[in-house]
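Quick look at the format.
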Amino acid sequence: MIKAIIIDDIEQARITLKKDLQVYASDVEVIGEANGVVEGAKLLKTLQPDVLFLDIQMQDGSGFDLLDILKEINFKIIFITASDAHAIKAFRYAAIDYLLKPVDPDELVNALKKYREHKVNENEKYKLLNDSLKNHHKPHERLALHTQDKIFIVNINDIVRCESNVNYTEFYFNNAKKLLVTRTLKDFEDLLCDQGFYRVHQSHLVNTRYIKEFVKTDGGYLMMNDGCSVPVSTRKRPEVIKMLEEL
């Protein structure tokens, strides 16, 4: 059985989540619940869950205030949050699971599926998330990338380009390193479009900082600073030329 704790200051939210777990996740046992930061910290000092369902904003503080009290995070955290654009984007940069209120049972099942598949220490991801939320007025500098067996925290400026590989994405870095990441190219286009990245082809997303030249022959392609060539789709060609003129 997966041992779970729920920390949320709204009693009805805790009741509803427990019912959903009973119906949609029969292998999850709720071993405790708390209504805030203080009560939650006391609970976590006596009970050790596998998964913590943690509300972000509570009456006596935030979920991060609670995490700061703990000496070590050796359990999976699934955050529960209201619809906040800054928070949601920060979660996606840190590749951390979150559930929007009211919780959708399908999203709950999906988050628990990820837990079963990837039981990893995620301390670094929580630090990245916390930094992102505290400095939401600044551009994100780092990104958490899931591969099949590890989570890498990378500097966004080190990414040269991304290439679609079915439901995966191949990342290419300025040190010639490569990573095959378990998310689609569309996911990263949404995240990185305001970070100087541009989708020049159905299968290619490039960091415009690393573009060396645009070759108009052979259908049109970009030469990158690392020596690779990236095709530009016919549909995207006028947009790419305009984008390069404005760099």
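Next, a different chain entirely:
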Amino acid sequence: MLESAERLIRRQGPDVSLEAIAAEAGVTKPIVYHHVGGKDAVVQGLARRLNERHAEASRRALEGVENPHAAIRAFVEAQLEQIEADRNLYRYVTGAGTGSAGSGVLTSADQSAAGLAELLADLRRRSRSGSGGAGGGGGAAALPWAYGIIGMLHFVALWWLRDADRSRAELAEQLTDLLWAGLRGEGRRRARG
């Protein structure tokens, strides 16, 4: 069912109906409700599959990267590459939830935040130890930062997919600059200074 949904969404765009997905899978809409649970269940299943691909792309991008700034850059680039490669599915998953407002977006964020929070806490520790203790905040900030980064990437990606006024590499560098200042604690030092 999910493979059929992905195939149809990639071909026709993010506004496909549950009836069209059922037809693509060769079943009726009542069968989808009985075995899958409706559109929200399809969105959640597709979000899981999409997030697994994003996580794997991030793991590959971060292999052997020791420099914290380069790691942030590699992560951002890998995420943007995945979003660009599967734009219709990304739009479907992040905007098609029929339950509470934004359920698809939050499902996607929840599935990504824990792993990203661990990465951020580790990068923060490495950054402080490599720069004489730069910044503060420690691991407590990692989870809110993870959700913030995921949210930032979501809305920037939607804007970028619509307007496409710069390359992926240029956009990744601009977002990395923003994230790197926060990770190192430069904004906090400036505010105190």
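Residues 51-192 form a domain with the Tetracycline Repressor; domain 2 fold (CATH 1.10.357.10).

See the schema section for token definitions.
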